[in-house]
Write a structure and sequence with these properties.
Length: 553
């Protein structure tokens, strides 16, 4: 068989498996929809709803990786082999789930045909996975993803070079010393248009589009998760303002966010309220200060990342009654001064104050995540996002904003996983044991083969979600449900990939990977945060992905 034939066969085989997996998972979703009364009874079947969310997400990732190869035949041979390996892995997962609980899954014999079985075995064979590993080791983990979008491709090169010269030299120290990201770096990123990447040009943004935003985020995050995360909060507030803000608010805030003049903090979580966002207790009470009408904020917030350095906080507070749940919440833009320490206290002329203390964390350092106390802190009425019409709509705007955050997290996770993969390849090629580079051992090649396959699947799932969200925005930026499903799937999947790949990479480093001095140890602790924020993994599985799938979304 020629190499060209092998490539074509890899993609054709991947397509056969992906189509079979799609048919099977659709059946599983239909069976689960019946069981849960179209998702209304998810809480009585949480374990199964989680299973469905995961399987559907795996299938989506396999589809995106196979479609990428079909769009670029012959251009990325490693991806073609990975497409088959990943599709085979997904089919195996579906088969295993069905074997354990055939009535719950309801897949029947959808994946039992001999063609599917033969292709699955070929894709999972030690020879196939090992050969992917050998190819990836040869390129020292670097990937050759083809981007159809020229701007995205140029931006990737630009930010890769930027990350190499400006971030990598300081990333390890920033982590180990728990330093704040340097102002100089924030300034350079602002000059590159980073903070306005999703902001339309008419509001001063660079409007690079979601795909470009993901590509540059991956490059920055591969150098340092924190640097790749600098724009997350502005992405969240930007989408909330575009979807729910008044025109005057967009004109007031977006240009200043785009230029990097205003750094954003997000204040949703509270000490006693996390996943159940509709129960937020922090109160906003109507009043007057110095003849100006507005709201007084009272209460506590938790885990507000970069809230010390931020000049504005997007804060969810209760303007209605507790009984109103999410419908009693409004979103505020709260101006404050920038503080660079691990704690701060800021008074207001009318007697109000904000205090903040950073929570120590093992990773995701460099921005500091704060517990905040608000005591009668005044915010003018024009800072309620959406104005009078925005009262009681904060929950929905915040959730819309999170779609952008979740998409970006898919790209952040891809960056961390890619960095860990490359580090593992370099180490395996350089480290000798038993008189051979450890890269020569079959198991190392197999590991690298599987790791790189999952990173590729994660990357293409994220790019697919970015394209979807872009098209969705063009139709109507105010109907985010399906976009949120896609974004949540990519955050769910790639966060786990980043954790698993970074831990595998650490193991490939042996004892030296456990040293604080090695960046691979940083990748491991950084990756652990990815499934926690912007909706924990179980919340995304149950309340976003399963809920939408089972309701027929
Ligand atoms: C480093 C870091 C940075 C962060 N940055 C920010 C930020 O900038 N702004 C912000 O507002 N927040 C931020 N967060 C907070 C984060 O969003 C919350 O931690 C998260 O939403 C979960 O809330 P919680 O910690 O209160 O957990 P809880 O909601 O108490 O959940 C605890 C566990 O129970 C599970 N659980 C909860 N409800 C259910 C259910 N119905 N069914 C099944 N399982 C359930 C959860 O999945 C989780 O595993 C950050 C967190 C961290 C760690």
């Amino acid at each position: 068989m020629t190499t060209q034939q092998a490539k074509i066969e890899n993609v054709a085989a991947a397509r056969t498996l992906v189509d079979a997996a799609r048919a099977a998972v659709d059946r599983a979703v239909a069976t689960a929809a019946e069981l849960t009364d179209a998702g209304k009874a998810i809480d009585d079947h949480q374990a199964h709803a989680e299973r469905i969310a995961q399987l559907a997400t795996f299938v989506r990732a396999a589809e995106e990786l196979a479609s990428y190869c079909e769009r670029h035949p012959g251009a990325d041979p490693t991806a073609e082999a990975q497409a088959l390996a990943f599709a085979a892995d997904v089919v195996q997962k579906l088969r295993t789930a069905n074997e354990a609980a055939p009535e719950l899954l309801g897949i029947g014999d959808a994946l039992a045909g001999s063609e599917v079985l033969d292709l699955m075995r070929a894709g999972l064979s030690d020879e196939h996975i090992g050969s992917i590993g050998a190819q990836v080791l040869e390129s020292r983990g670097a990937h050759g993803t083809v981007l159809d979008d020229q701007i995205a491709a140029m931006t990737r090169d630009q930010f890769r070079a930027f990350a190499r010269t400006e971030i990598i030299p300081i990333a390890q120290d920033m982590h180990r010393e728990d330093h704040l990201v340097p102002e100089e770096l924030i300034g350079k990123m602002a000059d590159l248009g980073l903070f306005g990447s999703s902001i339309p040009e008419r509001y001063g943004g660079t409007e690079m589009g979601y795909l470009t935003m993901c590509v540059l985020t991956e490059e920055l995050s591969a150098a340092s998760l924190v640097c790749g995360s600098l724009i997350t909060r502005s992405e969240i507030l930007t989408r909330a303002l575009i979807q729910g803000g008044t025109e005057e608010q967009r004109e007031t805030w977006l240009p200043r966010i785009a230029s990097g003049e205003l750094i954003v903090g997000i204040c949703v979580t509270e000490p006693d309220t996390g996943s159940d966002v509709g129960s937020v207790q922090c109160k906003a009470t109507w009043g007057e200060m110095d003849g100006q009408e507005g709201y007084f904020i009272d209460g506590a917030k938790a885990w507000a990342t970069f809230a010390g350095r931020a000049n504005i906080l997007a804060l969810l507070a209760r303007t209605g009654t507790p009984e109103e749940g999410g419908r009693g919440l409004s979103l505020f833009i709260v101006p404050k001064d920038a503080h660079t320490g691990h704690s701060f206290e800021q008074g207001q002329e009318g007697g109000g104050s904000i205090t903040g203390t950073a929570n120590p964390t093992p990773g995701y350092r460099g921005m500091h995540s704060f517990t905040l106390g608000f005591d009668h802190y005044f915010v003018p009425e024009e800072n309620v996002v959406g104005g009078e019409e925005g009262l009681g709509r904060g929950f929905y705007m915040q959730m819309g904003g999170f779609s952008a955050g979740r998409l970006q997290t898919g790209a952040r996770a891809t960056g961390v996983a890619q960095a860990a993969l490359e580090k593992a390849c370099h180490y395996a090629l350089d480290r000798k044991q038993f008189a051979r580079p450890i890269a020569d051992f079959q198991l190392t090649q197999h590991k690298i083969g599987r790791m790189s396959t999952h990173v590729a699947a994660g990357r293409h799932l994220t790019h697919g979600a970015a394209r979807f969200m872009q098209a969705d925005d063009r139709v109507s930026p105010t109907t985010p449900a399906r976009a949120d499903l896609e974004a949540s799937m990519c955050k769910l999947f790639v966060s786990d990939v980043a954790i698993w790949v970074s831990q595998e990479a650490q193991l490939i480093h042996g004892g030296w990977g456990y040293s604080e001095e090695d960046p691979v140890a940083r990748y491991v602790v950084d990756a652990l945060v990815l499934p926690i924020y912007e909706g924990t993994k179980p919340i995304l599985e149950l309340k976003v992905i399963a809920r939408q799938l089972l309701a027929g979304g």
